[in-house]
Amino acid sequence: MIEALHTNKQVYLTYYKQGHYITEAGIIYLSGDTFMYNFRVYTLRDGSKRIIKLKERESFKEELQRAGIQETQIFQMQLMEKPE
Fold first, then answer.
1. Within 13 Å of residue 37, how many CA atoms lie on the same side as its CB?
2. What is d(CA 20, CA 82) in angstroms, rounded to the nearest whole number?
3. Which residues contact 28 (CB under 8 A, 6 or more apart)?
4. What pTM value is reported for the model?
5. Structural domain boundaries of the chain?
6. pLDDT (tens digit, 9 = 90+) per residue, 20-39?
């Protein structure tokens, strides 16, 4: 995603929902020093949600540590401009 951020190229996000893989296309923009997608919403296998504000140059592993979850707990991830 970082490479796509600086080139305005289309990216594809794939996630698993209700027994199906779903792929969505989009472009990630940088406005000043803020991502267009500012938050990642994790839906966990137990049905709970964790909303994390994205930090530039933070690795996925670091993000999970900050969220206090493990990758095996994740059912779905979604990028959002603002949490609902």
1. 18
2. 25
3. 1, 4, 5, 11, 35, 36, 37
4. 0.56
5. 2-80
6. 777 766 666 555 554 466 78
